[in-house]
Design brief:
single chain, Immunoglobulin-like, 4-stranded antiparallel β-sheet, 16 helices, elongated, Cytochrome c oxidase accessory protein CcoG
């Protein structure tokens, strides 16, 4: 029997702890994070994606389609115009499919590459880096900003702080106007807002979202990512040992310590030093203020700023890059990363299915909606011609963006007579209410109820005929 106990080396790693505030207490204010600027390939990629999505966000409300705003989410009128498609409350399945596809796309990307959405494309991250850019251009680099905040108020500090907050507010107002412009006509919104002619509620929402942008990107910043965003809490459930995340190679980097650039490798080995020179640049460039060397943390948004900072130091020291890199747990332990794995295949399969269902739902969507309401005042009545008559209210919803002519007819009865307009013109995106009555010779009826169909026919933009039949009942009481 082997009584040997395996011993594992658990030499502690130096932990980066935040400085305690002067007024220590249970609810002390957080320490401000002064993010240091960084240059590198990942920073360039983040700026590229940030500019692309920021440009898309800013341009879309200004696009025109068929003489009207291409994307207009009109909540008051309960319709969403998205280029050639108009979505109504009856089209809830399309909206549901869009959210489901977005969710599974996020799950798939997170399983494969961690929180790259948070680090490269999330609006909170993008606007935070925009605000930090203004902060750095006006107040200076990290060290100067720290010294500026420690100084007493003088003219230099006053104008720099004033200009910074003015820039922040300008970005917040433009952001808010653009966002609200998705829900109302954006050209009129800008004119009315800057001429103080907007309605109370429209002005309220512009001010509200501007205040949210100003507070989130200017002051809360990492708090949104670490305490308020639910994605930060459940994203680790999608991670596995093959997920690419920003990680520190402790086997190569430990033990840490300063050294000169010309210190030979043999001396480093004798002193037990790894490649990490403990410069703390990886901490200074982190927008959430964590030390990636402490291992995987839920606060990490996978922005890769620490990767660029560390690669720059490794280059100056003449060491190999990627001491901090996008890698997997298997790769760090000396194994290989499995790209194709059951979880990733599962997410991809569901994503493809949901995308197919979304495309099918949009492709087979009929641009007509019919609602039939029976007259509740009387079941049936006899006309002066001796016919049995039922009264209905037909509501025709033109779900397209073009004016159409609709023709009504009756199916399911022998020689029915339709009283009322059997042909009506309905404007695009409008609901037309049409009272009609259906009369039949009593000799062709049996006492009771009979299922009939009110048919509505029109043509689409390509000249193809569209027919929609809606069922209702015809009642004959026999008097």
């Amino acid at each position: 029997m082997n009584d040997k106990i395996n011993v594992k080396d658990i030499t502690p790693v130096k932990i980066q702890k935040p400085t305690k505030p002067k007024n220590q207490g249970s609810y002390s204010a957080r320490n401000r994070i002064y993010v240091r600027a960084v240059k590198g390939s990942l920073e360039n990629i983040r700026r590229f994606f940030g500019l692309i999505f920021l440009g898309i966000f800013a341009i879309i409300p200004w696009l025109q389609y068929n003489g009207q705003q291409a994307v207009l989410l009109d909540i008051a009128e309960q319709r969403f115009n998205i280029f050639a498609m108009t979505l109504w409350p009856q089209d809830l399945t399309v909206v549901a499919y869009i959210f489901i596809v977005s969710a599974f796309a996020l799950f798939f990307i997170t399983t494969f590459a961690g929180r790259v959405w948070c680090g490269f494309m999330c609006p909170q991250t993008t606007w935070t880096f925009i605000y930090i850019w203004f902060e750095e251009k006006i107040e200076g680099p990290r060290n100067k900003r720290m010294k500026l905040d420690q100084r007493n108020l003088d003219f230099d500090k006053f104008w720099r702080k004033s200009l910074k907050h003015f820039s922040w507010l300008a970005v917040a107002v433009l952001t808010s106007l653009t966002f609200v412009g998705y829900f109302t006509e954006i050209d009129l919104l800008f004119i009315e807002f800057f001429t103080f002619n907007t309605t109370f509620w429209l002005g309220f929402w512009v001010v509200f979202f501007a205040a949210c942008t100003y507070g989130n990107a200017g002051f809360m910043r990492e708090i949104m990512c670490t305490h308020m965003c639910p994605y930060a809490r459940f994203q680790s459930a999608m991670f596995d040992k093959d997920t690419f995340t920003v990680s520190y190679n402790a086997a190569r980097g430990e033990h840490r310590g300063p050294r000169t650039r010309k210190m030979p490798k043999e001396t480093l080995i004798e002193k037990g030093l790894g490649d990490c020179i403990d410069c703390n640049l990886c901490v200074q460039v982190c927008p959430t203020g964590i030390d990636i060397r402490n291992g995987l943390q839920y606060e990490c948004i996978n922005c890769g700023a620490c990767v660029d900072a560390c690669n720059g130091v490794m280059e100056k020291m003449g060491y190999e890059p990627k001491l901090i890199s996008f890698t997997s747990e298997h790769e760090l332990s000396g194994g290989t990363t499995k790209i194709i794995r059951p979880k990733l295949i599962g997410y991809a399969f569901v994503l493809i299915i949901m995308t197919g269902m979304l495309v099918f739902d949009i492709a087979t969507r009929v641009p007509i909606e019919i609602d039939i309401i029976r007259d509740r005042n009387s079941l049936d009545r006899e006309t002066i011609d001796g016919l049995i008559e039922n009264v209905y209210t037909v509501k025709i919803l033109n779900k397209s963006q073009h004016d159409k002519v609709f023709t009504l007819s009756i199916k399911g009865l022998s020689s029915p007579v339709l009283y009322g307009d059997n042909q009506v013109a309905v404007a695009g995106g409008e609901v037309y209410t049409l009272p009609v009555s259906v009369a039949v010779d009593p000799s062709d009826l049996e006492i009771g109820t009979e299922q009939i169909y009110i048919s509505v026919k029109t043509t689409d933009e390509n000249g193809e005929t569209i027919v929609v039949d809606e069922s209702t009942t015809f009642i004959f009481t026999g008097f």
